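Quick one, T. Sequence first:
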Amino acid sequence: MTEALFRDDAYARSCRARVRAVTERGGIVLDRTVFYPTGGGQPGDSGRLLLADGRAVAIANTVKGDTPDEIVHVPAESQTPPPVGAEVGCELDWERRYRLMRMHTCLHLLSAVLPYPVTGGQVADGYGRLDFDLPELSLSKDEVGEQVNRLIAENRPVKPSWISDGELAAKPELVKTMSVKPPMGQGRVRLIAVEGADLQPCGGTHVKATGEIGPVVVQKIEKKGRINRRVVIALATP
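Structure tokens:
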């Protein structure tokens, strides 16, 4: 098991940890981490591990392991993993992570502005997209951008909470994304609430208030297949 510190504190930038295992491909499994693994449309974190001898191991990506509670830190090419049992310092590429947090929360606002089934989505560094099941509706980039920026400017609190698998099963309307199912089977599911605007299951990292996102721009709205409309949105400031 890897203790996922980011679930309780998305703003934690570093921690001390111990190497529990090294996979056949050189992936590093720690007993605890601040690194978020790829999932739910959000990329895995990058950063570095600091060893006692002063050496730094660059981490290019973070992914989920063979079990739901295992997180694997993927070293950059030519990097040598630390030995099992070694104590290391974990340091995020915080600037990148924070941009991902801002954009992930922004996409939740976009799904509130456009309350239609979500058929796909992706969080990227500085921009993101959602695909909606909208066979006929015509959307205005300016109108959508104006509504999202209004929710951002209102600086609404963003808070996590937890419900049981059974509670979520009784409220299927909470699940907006048709292509990605919330992680169930462990007894409870994490929710992210944007006060007065949005509530949905999500295991990703988010800002504490919408004002942290900053201004955004809807870059394009395009038709993707018979029923899909793709909305691409970007941070206006780094």
